[in-house]
Amino acid sequence: MKTTEAAFFDLDKTVIAKAAMLAFGPKLQKEGMLNRWLVARALWGQIVFRYLGADESRMEKMRETALKVCVGWDKERISSLIDNALSEVIDPLVYAEAVELIESHQDAGRRVYLVSASPEEIVMPLARHLGVEHAIATRARVDNAGKYTGEVEFYSAGEHKVEAIMAEAEAHNLDLEGSFAYSDSVTDLPMLRSVGHPVAVNPDKALSKEATDRGWEIRVFDHPRPLNEERTISAPGPKTVGLGAVGAAAVLGASMWWRSRKLRRRGLFGRAR
User: Fold this and answer.
1) Taking burial as the number of CB atoms within 10 A of a residue's CB, which of 93, 116, 149, 166 is the most buried?
2) At what angle do helices 36-52 and 56-70 cross, to 10 degrees?
3) Is the residue at 32 inside a domain?
């Protein structure tokens, strides 16, 4: 049987310039599903994640917090909200370089996947929006009424991404040695190691070191811009198998650290741990 090559793209800060969950925060707040404190805490968490590095304990804590916040939310309502707001929220954040690269892999006949720890409610419509046919994403558990229980069926991160990729390789006879993977985070080291052509995109400090030590290609995507309105998306919906700029960000991080410190003193954030 003939083998097929593939290209696996992480989502946050690889295809889009911001964490997808954070990007939809204002919309969820407007709908009354998040309060200002939760939005601020999510922003602070993303800054810590980006500038202090990612590890399994931080990833686990962020996942647990997100699941607790979502308990009782109606899945269909969230899916509809995200689908309707997709162009407004995501289009300005998409890296032009990522879109061009995705299209080049498709033109070469490769199966292209978005592989993200973000929930499928975000990843699937975003993949469809980009013309990507396949997606691996986190699946949250819902009850009989269609509401989130606070538990997860599949967490698409770390080694779990590799498990899903291996399952896809088995099902579709993928040649992983001839395939490509793109990510910005050291937490995706397992995914990058699973293919023959790993590429670090806008890598965090830890991944930059790993990529340099291993002789991997490093790319910088720095042109987020709205998708071309004339671009026609004809691909079917994705199959899911699974939630100066540096200086400005540093200033923002420092200011939020100082504010969080003041809030802790006032007891608004609870006791520091």
Assistant:
1) 116
2) 160
3) yes
